[in-house]
What does this fold into?
Amino acid sequence: MLTGKLVRVRYARDHIVPQYLDAHDPQWLDVAEQLLGIFRTSDGTARGQLEAEIDDLFGDLPQPLIHNGLAKLLEDRCDFEVEAPLPPDEVRDAVFLAAAKKRQATLEEIGQAFSRDAIIQAIATDLKSNAYQIEASLFADLKSEQRLTRFRDTTPDRLLERYNVALAQAVLLRSSGVEIVIRGETPARYRQLFRQIKFHRLICDIDLLPSPLRGRGAGGEGGAHAYRLQLDGPLSLFSATQKYGLQLALFLPTLLLCQHFELKAKLRWGAERKDKVFHLSAKDGLVSHQTETGAYVPPEVPMFVELFKKKIADWEISEETEIIPLGKNVWVPDYRLVHRASGNVVLLDILGFWRRSSAERHLAMLREHAGAPFILAISDQLNVEEGELEGLPDNVVRFRNMPLPEEVAKRAERLVGA
It folds into this structure.
């Protein structure tokens, strides 16, 4: 993802307009190919040496932000590791301590010389090593000395497309609120989209809108309904703004898979946090690098499911894929719990980042429209609003790292009287 210093935008009154690249421009395709050539042939190269080679090739050219941005995206596709014969921190401590003692001795005894090579050799003897290994290990854990061990290759046009998406993602990191309208997608696409909102733990209200498109509705093949998604932006939260902003940015490639969408983000831009607006739609032509399956899932979720299946014999757990209307809103629960003996059903929803006000509003809609008993699991760590968490209803399960299967099953049994 691009850092703030690499973002290229222009201003149109109160609008922020990212300066996207033409992914078919021969000039930029050639630049992308040259950069790829460097990374493809740099296995085992130190990170600092790699950056110096890129600077030598493109440092004097105009528009350095583009070259540096493309290089940053390729660096994100790399794995770097510390390669050292000996633990760098231990070697460094020993060398610096010996050097300090030697320096003190030279101050006390006139005429005594200070020799770096002698200190290195002395430490090598103490560690039963040699001077070459000491030198190779001394600063090997510095970022600039880390070695490239793996590069996930791509193509020039895909790199340019990824650059455009990264620009839009970097702009969204400055958002205080995001509104998205999506029309005419298939039920499968809507389910995928809503599940990704949940799995990226975004604070979101989903409203069902009337649509002029013909079809059989959200549950039919026509996908005629439209939805308005209202998401909190990272700059609207009291805490966890960096982590939440990253999750919002990671959600964007899923949205780009839709054929008809319009996004409007309210921004606080620059050091003075001036109010700006960012618009994005399918007409901008951004191409998602994400596969159609949208496989992102927070790691604690499958871990919870696996433990539930191992520990809880009375209940069966499965993914819930239905879109459930909640008045003018909709809901896609995470899981369906079925009591094996009675067949009673309890719906389970694992809430991501949340405010107390948004959780209470969600609970009120569920009580009125869910049509089945439900449990809402919320994380103490992902509360983004200062304030007390006491007094929440019985069908709310709080957790720190992941929901406890035993607690979820206990609440489910209490709800259905199993």
